[in-house]
Amino acid sequence: MLTIGLTGGIGSGKTTVAQIFEVLAIPVYYADQSAKDLMNHDPELKEKIIAAFGKSVYKEEKLDRALLAKRVFGDSKQLQILNSIVHPATMLDAARWIERQRAPYVVKETAILFEAGLEKNYDRIIGVTAPESLRLERVLSRDHSSVEKVLQRMNQQMDEQEKMSRCHFVIHNDGIKPLLPQVLAIHESLLEYKSL
Asked: Which DSSP helix (H) or strand (E) runs through 87?
């Protein structure tokens, strides 16, 4: 079974694209959501996070995401520590999930695919891109965050142009070019690739 990476900067519309693949009966693993679930429910992972960041990052058995984010965003060393704890657990969870799937291919949606050096784990990579102003607008309306915080998160991700240059397929989610025909063309291409 082919494993397809789906990536793009914050606010690019990865989730919307992933949902179109799901409509096409392609299983999608959402790495960010899975990581959040694991950080709340995986006892071993929770133990490692507490050992690295202290008991205060959990309140009533739930991760205090705001407190942890305050500690790691803006401190690359702390962010690196968190990623080194969470990424292996998410990778293992994804591998187990992939084993259970029955489809021509699966899609694994992850924002930091290249940043985490994971490109070698995929047969093909799809990038989703959108103008920065549109991405900013989407994230502000979705997360109700400040412009400064969103820009800080954007700046921690790989340059958009660099990221897209490394992808096998690029979907333009600029609000002008329709998404469905772009996804369908990639879907057909992947089905052909699978049959080679």
From this structure: helix 76-100
Q: Which domains does the chain have, with CATH numbers?
A: 1-27+105-196 (3.40.50.300), 34-100 (no CATH)
Q: What string of pLDDT tens digits covers the 196 residues of the chain?
A: 999 999 998 899 999 999 999 999 999 999 999 999 999 999 999 999 999 999 999 998 899 998 998 888 778 899 889 999 999 999 999 999 999 999 999 999 998 899 888 899 999 999 999 998 888 888 888 887 888 888 877 777 888 899 999 999 999 999 999 999 999 999 999 999 877 6
Rounded-to-integer distance, Cα 106 and Cα 66, Å: 32
Residues 6+ apart with CB under 8 A from 138: 11, 13, 130
What is the Cα–Cα distance from 82 to 67, expressed in whole angstroms?
13
Return the ∠ at Cα 47 (arms to 56 and 70), rounded to 5°: 40
